[in-house]
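Build the 3D complex.
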Amino acid sequence: MSLSKLLGAVSVASFLAAPAFAQDYPARQITMVVPFSAGGPTDTVGRLVAERMSADLGQQVIVENVGGAGGTLGAGQVAKAEPDGYTVLLHHIGMATAETLYRNLAYETLDAFDYVGLVTDVPMVIVARRDFEPADFPAFVDYVKANADSITMANAGIGAASHLCGMLFMQALDVPLVTVPYKGTGPAMTDLLGGQVDIMCDQTTNTTQQIKGGTIKAYAVTTPERLDVFPDLPTVVEAGMPSLEVAIWHGIYTPKGTPAEVNQRLSQALQSALADEGVIKAMADLGTAPVAAERATPEALKAHLEAEIARWQPVIETAGVYAD
Amino acid sequence: MDLLSNLALGFSVAGSLTNMGFCLIGVMLGTLIGVLPGIGATATIAMLLPITFQLEPVSSLIMLAGIYYGAQYGGSTTAILINMPGESSSAVTAIDGYQMARKGKAGTALAVAALGSFFAGTVSTFLVALFAPPLTAVALKFGAAEYFSLMVLGLVMSVALAHGSVIKALAMVILGLLLGIVGTDIYTGVPRFTMGITQYADGLNFVAVAIGVFGIAEILRNLEDEHEREVMTKKVTNLLPTRAEFRQMVGPVLRGTGIGSVLGILPGGGAILASFASYTMEKKLSKTPEEFGRGALAGVAGPESANNAGAQTSFIPLLTLGIPANPVMALMIGAMIIQGIVPGPSVVTDQPALFWGIVASMWIGNLMLVVLNLPLIGLWVKLLTVPYYILFPIIMAMSSIGVYSVNSNAFDLYAVAFFGLLGYAMVKLRFEPAPLLLGFVLGPLLEENLRRAMILSRGDPTTFVTRPISAGLLVVSVAVLVLVFLPQIRKRREEVFTESDA
Amino acid sequence: MATKPKDDTDMVAGLALMAVAAFFGWQTAGLEIGTSLRMGPGYFPMVLSGLLFLLGLFVFAKSFGRDGEPTTPLAWRGMIFIISAPVFFGLTVRGLGFVPALFVTTLIASQASAKMRPHYALILAVTVTILSTLIFSYGLGLPFRRFGPWFPL
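Done.
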């Protein structure tokens, strides 16, 4: 009886002092904020990783969807959360682009967060409706340049992966196309399948099954190496357009001021989740793969975020599109 | 005979003891949670998603699908009993269902809803099985111009939802359209009518608006004069429909099933229109249109069937294209991906057991729902005998949790309060909430597709009449318009004549 | 001299519609209108605001010359308590946590009826809170903190 009381007192004390005693971390369940609605590709990545991280941490990691305003609401919420390691953020490339896309962001991206690590780089594929004429990527580029005013390019809304890639594509080819925005990838893909729009550039998460099913035509991947799922598909680098290289990377963040040991512990859990067979297989089905262990670290994510903010700022400013 | 062997495969998968068990759990959970005001299928499935990770893919999808239609069933129950629709489809059920409940016919309304849904579910399940691939091809013919014309048709029909002044109903539709626009413009990224509140950048939450203008307004109306008027008729006559009522519901159920099945296939928001369209049709065909809005049986039977049929056929774009028709379907895709099945055109051929198992489980789930719900009707009706002053604090607590659980956004709760006040003001000024809600749902779709159609046609407005499907829909719209206004004009002329005679 | 008959409800309704239309129209003012062929973000809302104003005018004009139906009293007490319940929940669910926030929310809502006795309200609030916590927090695992940082331990 007295022993259990003592144990209770100890656990209460350690609970209160959790941030100071990082070796006791984690002592309760961790909330992973995904700043997009449930069921989307980012949510899927979050839930995959969260489930396996729970196993390593010995505490449940639960996903909370705080959707809205291109992910900035959820990120803003984590920026303001207690830096005790019990609130983490899983965000994608939008973390870097929002810095420029949103001119009155509620937080300073580089000052408001600490880092856990990168999770995965989702490649993108340049696709077109199934009866689009050009046979290969060089022909595609020539065709688009020659017919710039009659070709329509779909995207899933401002700030979406397809929009970012679309901006890069048009700047790389130096042709302005008629862009057709949609509310999300679903309707954009429907119209591409139905031949209502001509081309799109989107994540493998959304395109792989359609390409395999022959309902849309793929021209190139935006990664340095070819993909295992489509060994015949050339890369943009091979085609001599390295500026088109882009991946939708995902990272995990904590609020600024989280103890370094806590971030390390989370990073370790992330690495173990990324090495899990189930995660690797699930990601492979989506046409992506976990990042190497040395990139699932705080340092790697910090460096990557800084580089990406610097990369996208001129792209977005040239396009002159803002989301606020 | 392909179909038979496919269905046999499906039933052998769905009929296994384990999968039947998960189906049962799904529909029970769905019903229970759907009955709680403010908590719809989307929130429920989002909550339960993690639980399904541990299951076999087929079992988990069967369970999630069960939750989906279970929650829709439960949602209709709430709409009928306390006038709290959780989704756009049950907003229509609330119009006449709640009036039936106030007249002491809650049991009949619930039974009609259950039986109509079951019939619609059965028919549309077979449609999914028979025609999924060819229907998909039709759905892909719908581009921006077609959706715009479809939404115009929806708006024209919405006027028939009104049982009072047509002008005031039109005003509510337009107010709804304006409210639907709140949020960031997807074409330019400019925020519209958000008052600088970033939390509304993605628009107002449907559940918040629906609970406000329907449910809270009704609570406030009941609190006006607690001493004089009994809120509900305590005397509940009979639970099951009479023979005459059965006969009355046959036509509406058949027509509702047809409309719902067709509209559910369209991934761009067709299913939203199903129950509205059915309501309009029943009102137009009825010999006693004045009963609509005052507890017409056909006003419950038709829309409920349409809604359930649409819910089933909206699985078609999901299973054949991998494209979600609504947020619930998006969640199902998430669930499939986590299970290692990426939905897409190849699911039918690569995973026949999964595809046909789900199709078969839809029918089994619907059967379970009827068997579960018919005996429960007595219990639900008893709920109405709970004193109102005990019931509504519970309703408020549940709605608050439900609305918050969707996106963890406190501003959605402030929206509930605002729309509660707005809804009450509307009651006072004799405006009806259903047209507003339809406008709210259609507003973004209407504008989005109008502008997209203009972009795709390079600014050529004839695109709406040169594309055959679009032109056809516009012709139907004009026809409906004439049908709606002609009786009014005639009536006015008759009035004029009688006056001059006198 | 008797006053001419008019439908007060519709008169107010018409005025309210015009006011709402004017508000939306004013909010649209800052948005780019564009042309019919190249619509800007303000085009659609502007057309709608205009239509709404006309309908309001119509309702207003038609209210004269006929009698309205009798009006019922306003539910002041209901409005105050019912409306503040979800607002309180929204303000405190993160800070206080799910359990205390829900308890107070139910308590506030129960005050809307004059028939509610204080001790019943307390019993009701406790019951609702316990059941909801069991169902939503433990049963469904909603990601809410049961007791938030403001809650004194």
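Chain B has a mean pLDDT of 82.
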